[in-house]
Prior knowledge:
It contains no helices and 32 strands.
Amino acid sequence: xxxxxxxxxxxxxxxxxxxxxxxxxxxxxxxxxxxxxxxxxxxxxxxxxxxxxxxxxxxxxxxxxxxxxxxxxxxxxxxxxxxxxxxxxxxxxxxxxxxxxxxxxxxxxxxxxxxxxxxxxxxxxxxxxxxxxxxxxxxxxxxxxxxxxxxxxxxxxxxxxxxxxxxxxxxxxxxxxxxxxxxxxxxxxxxxxxxxxxxxxxxxxxxxxxxxxxxxxxxxxxxxxxxxxxxxxxxxxxxxxxxxxxxxxxxxxxxxxxxxxxxxxxxxxxxxxxxxxxxxxxxxxxxxxxxxxxxxxxxxxxxxxxxxxxxxxxxxxxxxxxxxxxxxxxxxxxxxxxxxxxxxxxxxxxxxxxxxxxxxxxxxxxxxxxxxxxxxxxxxxxxxxxxxxxxxxxxxx
Length: 397
């Protein structure tokens, strides 16, 4: 995507004009680490592909800058200028924006779960948990789409669900299996299921009892590579996210990087690409991409809940000549394999986790934020891995 650059000194941003492949206008904006009070770090960016940086009404963006001052910074959701720091009385642990309440962050770790208003600097709600948890879903969790349910876990394979609307905490269940280590626990978008992700990219689904919140393995019937379908295991996915599929009666789904090693192969009558959707109810899989000359998919985000039915996908760099090499695209969940091409990432991820793009759409799907070193195929003005900053692609009318 050819870019032309013009400095906006007043905002301390770099603004780019671009033309997307489907002829929609777009702008790409770099959030520049400079200006204002406090101390900017060379690493100033959003958190991860499954965590929405914009708040519920999209007026604020949460940005991490480890080692900077403040470490958690809130930007204006439209101008991208700093507007406020972390509240002095906010003991941030592992937090997410509430999907409905614009100023509330859902914060968890140890024995604490709370909603904290980061604008008024006050705790809104809190729960004392039955056991000390490891962050919010082992750092990889989220809340249900309506903000009602959250699944929490510790490092000893214990987990439970909290109904934050009626203040009910469900019984503790075990996700221990075959000696595997759980690396993520989360609630599905509807709140009907809990997913557990194990080291090696094995995923397991549990039913949530709507009355007691008790967790039991959900028997599956789709193709799997590890575990046992009757114990709740589904097709292996990496860097996955969960959401609802409006093309399939709002079924709960998980979309991620194909991780059984079957890209280019036929499984259950489908030729698989590198992006796979799993229906949680039965484990049925759908390939969202065609494998012909496709690069290797990286991270997936389903955070555009107000543009339902779209997965935003990044691809690895270093695959010259292959489709979508170091790009971020959007693909619908209808299986049509239609592609929206959003941006080239220009980031060098070699041995650098915080250099990974981790693209996330805004709630309405009209903007996309990604991190980059801007050091690959950059045609002058190149950066280095030492400076990681956020970029925004804007397709708003």
